[in-house]
Amino acid sequence: MIVDLFAGPGGWSHALARLGVRDIGLEWDEWACKTRAAAGQLTIRTDVAMYPVRPFLGATSGLIASPPCQAWSMAGKRLGLLDQSLVHQAVADLAQGRDTREDLLASCRDARSLLAAEPMRYLHALHQHGQPEWVAMEEVPDVLPLWRQYAAVLRNWGYSVWYGILNAADYGVPQTRRRAILLASRVRTAQPPTPTHSHIAEPDSLFGPGRSRWVSMAEALGWGATDRPVPTVCAGGGPGGGPEPFPSGSRKTLSDARERGTWRPRPGGVLQQPGRKGRGPAVPGAPDNRAATAPAPEFVAGAHRWSWSLRNNNQPNATVRRADEPAGTLFFGHRANECTWVAAPASTPAEDTDAPAVPDPIRISACEAGCLQTFPADYPWAGNKGQQFSQIGNAVPPLLAGHLLAPHLGVALDPDDFTLAA
After folding, report:
1. 168, 188, 283, 395: which has the fewest Cβ within 10 Å?
2. pLDDT tens readout for residues 75-123
3. Helix (H, G, I), strand (E, B), or coil: what is residue 161?
4. In this structure, what DSSP letter does residue 49 have?
5. Phi/psi class of residue 97: alpha, beta or left (left: φ > 0; alpha: ψ in -120 to 50)?
6. Most distant CA pair in the chain: distance in Å?
7. Which superfamily does 2-192+398-417 belong to?
8. 184-216 burial, b for 16+ CB within 10 Å, e for fewer?
9. CA distance 214 to 174
């Protein structure tokens, strides 16, 4: 079996399903467990720190671990950084079969910090049975020194190990999400997957195809059929401009705009996620994945007047990315989905006096956020908006997970398996 510690809403699990296998996820959060159940994933709802390793002894081929990152993340208080020495001590002790977690936990400033040591408890017990065959772990970049410690232990046990920082955008994820990754194997050389995308598209050469340009938010969300990669939300104010879709100051999402008919997605509800076939930005004139006989998408008047960007939060230094770029790292705090689409006037002739006013910011929807994490548009997120966004922000992008896991499973990854279809 493949055991997934801190399984969350199923980023690793969805990737494994696309690769033709299943895992058993251990997860504590009620709503993440309900999401996993709705997605058909095997789950044990439990506190990973309390669950015994015994049921997995002698039957585990792979171990996956993405410990909670709130204690270490830039989005939190980062008290985990102050607890680093305690976490390192816990890992060292567990690698020797000594369980000092209770004593160390009493000194931690953040009770979640020590969860980053839990994979070593499982690894030590499994190692006594010659398992697992491979290991894959993921966390925020600040955890890299801890992965270095894990790597030293695993190498001493006979594993080939690689650890480092990977950018999800280099693997077709429409998000410049940087994460500390550890890969280990008893049977093959551990190494990072070959990037498939780059900031600037590369031409084909005698040595093979060049890498595609990073996937933009517009491409991932299916906005590439327009002359500008923008959500076609129209504000009033000029002839043909139509009514403003939301009253001033409202905090709606682009999904609400779809329901009101002010934004029409591609025919058939297809959300484009180019794989190796994609080259360059979505617009202008980019290929799209509609059937040849499908009717052209409908757009409201005035849509061309706006250039849309995603603002990650309401702080003065918030990351703001244009829709023709990948998103910044998506995370959602206690105010849930404070990521918003913000519009600026596109380049228009000076004599255009009928240009409508800039629309109010519009909150990103859970569906859109999930797609930017490379989950399918119809992924069954459970809970209220806050609970859904918390799951999405903490999840591993399935497409990145697929790239990391495919070599261990001896299967080829087809990015088209991760097409974001409704």
Report:
1. 188
2. 555 566 788 899 999 999 999 999 999 999 999 888 888 999 999 999 9
3. strand
4. T
5. left
6. 77
7. Vaccinia Virus protein VP39 (3.40.50.150)
8. bbbeeebebbeebbeeeeeeeeeeeeebbbbbb
9. 7
